[in-house]
Design brief:
The chain starts with a helix and ends with a strand. The chain is built from 5 helices and 46 strands. It has 5 domains: about 160 residues, Galactose-binding domain-like (Jelly Rolls, Sandwich), CATH 2.60.120.260; about 100 residues, Immunoglobulin-like; about 210 residues, Immunoglobulins (Immunoglobulin-like, Sandwich); about 80 residues, Immunoglobulin-like (Sandwich); about 70 residues, Immunoglobulin-like (Sandwich). Strands 1, 3, 4, 6, 9 and 11 form a 6-stranded antiparallel sheet that branches. It has a 5-stranded antiparallel sheet with strand order 2-5-10-7-8, with no helix packed on it. By secondary structure, the chain is mostly beta strands. A hairpin with a 4-residue loop joins strand 45 and strand 46.
Length: about 675
Amino acid sequence: MKKITLLFAFVAMISFLNAQTFLDEDFSDNQMPPSGWSIDGFPANWSASSSANAGGTAPEGKFTYSQNIAVTRLISPEIDLTGHTSVTIAFDHFYDHYSNPAPKLGVATRSQGGDWTSVWEIAPTGDVGPEGQLFDIENSDVGQADFQFCFYLDGNFYNMDYWYVDNIELFIPFSLDAQLVSISTPSIVSGPTPVEGMLKNKGTTQITSVDVSWQVADGDVHTTTFEGLALDLGDTYNFSCSDLFDYPVGTHTLDVWIAQVNGGADLNPDNNMLMKDINVASFSEQRKPCFEEFTSSTCGPCTSFNNQFVPWCNSHEEDITLVKYQMNWPGSGDIYYTEEGGARRGYYGVTWVPWLVGDGGFLGTNLGEVNGFYDASMENPSFAGVVSSHTLSGTTMDFTTTVLPYAGFENARVHVIVFEYETTGNVGNNGETSFEHVMMKMVPDAGGTTADFTDREPVTYTQSVDLNGTNVEEWDDLGVIVIVQDYASTVVYQSDYSVENGVFATEDNLVSLSVDGTPLPDFDPAVLDYYMELPEGTVDAPVVTGEAADENARVIVIPAPELPGTTTVDVFAEDLATHQQYTVNFTVIQGVENPLAAKVKLYPNPTKGILNISGFEKANVAVYSISGKLVVEYVDFSGNTIDISNLTNGIYFINIQTDENVVTKKVTLNR
């Protein structure tokens, strides 16, 4: 047995010594060419782009079209491959097609500065990717002390839009190597959420099982075993762990790692762990799906799309926001084109018209996709509130905009955009006779206002702009849209229209405060702090709810994370800036027994919807959401199960009240 163990250790050591990474480039230095690299032909067309179209993370390498028929190469540094006969290259890429014949895309190698030898080449006839490529190189350049490789384009650059490349790696693989590629759990969540991500086989041995573990701070380690896999070199697997991420409001660092591969240790632990900050939001509200359209009065296809899209928008005008940017092509383009619209085009990587963006992401220009996006967006809560008002005096417009975040947002952008509801002066040659929601001015410019937001800390912006010299046709036909957006990912947190001459209420009082559904008898709107003793044995904080004096105010309840502890009730007035906070401070009485607390059993937890319940004969059972809303109630209940499967996933409090005692239990619904 000892000899076998030593033999295994020797084989593992040989594999470790042979495995090596020679180059790893992800453009994180945000420079083009990267350090040590060079460009042969059209260097101005290569850039480090703040996008993630190749399938990795921003930034990435990008080649932009031009009116040339030629060859361009992005060339690696010289790499010493002395003594090696084979090397593996991996990269992510996305080719954005325009027309045929398209330029050929490829990877080539050379040594001693000699001629290039192609080792991978495609002649695309449409979009390619985003996809990963991984293959071995075994030609005569391998083994040389001055090995180089390049990414090249060869052909008509005008017949393409862009080529994106990222996560370039040249290496000799380990025999057993699983890489944790990404954590896909959203960075902002509002309740129990799966821990998910992607792993890849970077080794030569097929992976049949993987143990993935995760932990928050110094808490419990959660491990899920994924079996029955058949991952060969380069294959990926999207995983979802069995235990849910379920933590209080705030920011938590999530560590995820590969614990075992094929029942044993991974030979390359350096790529086994990632971490990600997850914000648990304090509140959420209805999202307004945000549409941004790039169009032109000289664009024929824009006419057929707008003939359908405009009536659709008019029928959904109360639920969505919309702004249109007129482009300076095809041909002479639209005369209402502005440089700000061009900057917005560059931000999204727009390559044709009509081009539709929904909540910051690309949409196809057909009503099927529009409706699909709209339905999904309406089901996706927003973690920010926005109110804005504006006034117009002559050609000067003044704005007051308040953003109330329900989680921490870093590097956000607040865009205030003036548009005209209908224009006719920019009629071109495509048959459209009028245009709706045409952008006139972005405030302060196309970059918006940069902001780092903190949960429940409203920020108010006071801005002014002179619209003289813009394309405004009718000064009484102007509107304003506000977009709050994550700059790096382009995701829109929330959008809304500004209200002309709007005045928003500042009422931030409660009219009642209830604990487990029972109003506090001594409640006074002017008194902000309350104290309550709970029976011995109480484990979970009671459900606190508040009713605002103004129905347009936001009431945000943050339950006490433990007992003794404090539940806070934040009330934000309609203007989102006026605010006060109520507290209910809980202590637990010592020496007084609550026999019901020990007897009540509630399982399974988490549940898919059916809860087994026992420990009492007759009680009132109430189910509250995490915000304190009563969602289900059973009066004089003596059954064995309750069904909450029709509710949305999240945390709920089950309040059980008999004639003598009250018990509240917390459960997680995860259907």
